[in-house]
Amino acid sequence: MALLRKINQVLLFLLIVTICGILYKKSHRGSVPKSDADEDSEVPEDMEDEIPVVICAAAGRMGATMAAINSIYSNTDANIVFYVVGLRNTLSRIRKWIEHSKLREINFKIVEFNPTVLEGKIRPDSSRPDLLQPLNFVRFYLPLLIHQHEKVIYLDDDVIVQGDIQELYDTTLALGHAAAFSGDCDLPAAQDVSRLVGLQNTYMGYLDYRKKAIKDLGISPSTCSFNPGVMVANMTEWRQQHITKQLEKWMLRNVRENLYSSSLGGGVATSPMLIVFHGRHSTINPLWHIRHLGWSPDARYAEHFLQEAKLLHWDGQHKPWHFRTVHADLWESWFVPDPAGIFKLRHSR
Ligand SMILES: *[C@@H]1O[C@H](CO)[C@@H](O)[C@H](O)[C@H]1NC(C)=O
Questions:
Q1: Transmembrane region positions (predicted)?
Q2: How far apart are CA 270 and CA 281, in angstroms?
């Protein structure tokens, strides 16, 4: 009898230890330092007021992501939840960078993107292999990654936000529009920059108009393009219109028929979006997407103009963490050093 009681006590002890273990794990999962929200509790009251910002963190350019997050968080009082998307083997590094730096305050979720969904959908022959990185296509799959929000902001990693992100979030989407972008012809003129950009302002810069499938779309080649590096999207509309399916259809067609323009400065993710969203997207205030800062080492805007800009985008090959470009200081002031010491500014003095 005594033995039995002893065994019972041991079992009870083990049970308590197990429960404590589970509870501990739960409170350390999901990473919501700002409030102590429990993932499994009811949807919190202020969920509606949360602004979800989706941004990717690719292995070689995580420093870009962290600078962007830092700039967004520092310039708003809004309640932001960052969805930081990475491939499986980088997730722990993302977490470490956030939790062991000044970013530990932010509200974030780390989301894994499984690149197998892209199999057979990407032509391997781009002149810029960096644009073929799986994470470039995350924006096609937003409703698969984000479930709790209807309206979502997606940002490329090579941006810096200088305005209050609430303003961008308040962009109105017209009824029936699944997304809003900033048009490539709405950009305030900056001579140096527009000279560099040239044809990359129109559909002709992204689609091969010699191909029948493209001609058959009936879209004029001189139609102004838009840049999908900054997007405000409505997940309900996105699902209803099967946007992801439509984008995948054009990816597959491109694999078979090579439909994109060969000049493609803007990236292989842009072309299918130009087709699918043609004539049915809302617009973002151009000051919320000042771009082309990475088109050349000396792509130059007037300083006072850049100060008024709400969002700066270093699209192009001359990234401010690699090159000492004209306006790199505007990026560098948001840099968050890598606690693991892996990511380094190449041009650091
Ligand atoms: C999103 O789209 C749905 C369906 O059209 C609509 O009812 C809803 O009001 C839209 N939400 C926003 C924030 O625009």
A1: 6-24
A2: 14
Q: Closest Cα to atom 14, ligand 1: which residue? A: 173
DSSP per residue over 167-186, as a string?
HHHTPPPPTT-SEEEEETTS
Q: Which two tokens stand for residue 60?
A: 């070689």
**Residue 10 confidence (pLDDT) above 80:** no
Verify whether ligand 1 is closer than 6 Å to residue 49 (CB atom): no
Q: Bigger pLDDT: 199 or 232?
A: 232
Identify the pLDDT of residue 36.
41
Pocket-testing residue among 49, 152, 237, ligand 1, by greatest number of atoms within 8 A of Cβ: 237
Token digits for 100? 């062991």
Q: Which atom of ligand 1 is nearest to the CA of 240?
A: 4
> What would the pLDDT profile of 32-61 be if each residue is shown by its tens digit?
333 444 444 444 545 568 999 999 999 999
Residue located nearest, by CA, to atom 10 of ligand 1: 234
Q: Pick the more confident residue, 260 or 112.
A: 112
Task: State the fold for domain 46-185+226-240+280-333.
Answer: Spore Coat Polysaccharide Biosynthesis Protein SpsA; Chain A (3.90.550)
